[in-house]
Amino acid sequence: MSGLQILGAGLGRTGTLSMKQALEDLGFDPCHHMEETFSHPRPNQKFLFQNILEEKNKEAALEALFGGYKAMVDYPGCMFYEDFMQMNPDAKVILTVRDSPEAWVKSVNATIFQVHGASNWFSWTFRKFVRKLASPAHIP
């Protein structure tokens, strides 16, 4: 994938919207953030995310969703930071974090989980991502 120079590996609610603005101010514009999936949706967006999670034409789907961006932070891109690292070996990786896991849970419960009900595609995608993180391959 050409173009992605900055990869945000931090989860949402870790300062990613501020990071997006800072990166764009520094010239890494456009920067993909979750808000892009609502304000500038790509054609067949849901289908492409399903393909990525099911490992079907993953690289082509990532290119279709994130092509043209110079940077990526927040969901859904952070879910695929390892893939982006392989596809963009010269890209720099930024990890944003909260003060504690408890602070992060409190924040997502008050925001993301309130806005995105269990029936929409984001919740489905997020659940798949959490299961991936909880898999034995990700446990040190």
Summarize the structure.
The protein has 140 residues and is an alpha/beta fold.
Structural class: alpha/beta
Q: From the alpha carbons, calculate the radius of gyration and give it in angstroms.
A: 14 Å
| Helical content (DSSP H or I, runs of 4+) | 40-55%
Strand-residue proportion: 5-15%
> SSE string, helix = H, strand = E?
EHEHHHEHEHHH
Mean pLDDT equals 84
Major sheet description: 4 strands, parallel
Distance between the termini: 29 Å
Tell the overall outline: globular
Q: Quickly count the helices.
A: 8
Let me know the number of strands.
Answer: 4
How does this structure look, described?
By secondary structure, this protein is an alpha/beta fold. It is 49% helix and 7% strand. It is built from 8 helices and 4 strands, in the order E-H-E-H-H-H-E-H-E-H-H-H. It has helices spanning 16-25, 34-39, 45-53, 58-66, 81-87, 101-110, 112-115, 121-133; strands spanning 6-8, 31-32, 71-72, 92-94. The chain has a 4-stranded parallel sheet with strand order 2-3-1-4, sandwiched between helices. The radius of gyration is 14 Å and the shape is globular. The model has no long low-confidence stretch (mean pLDDT 84).
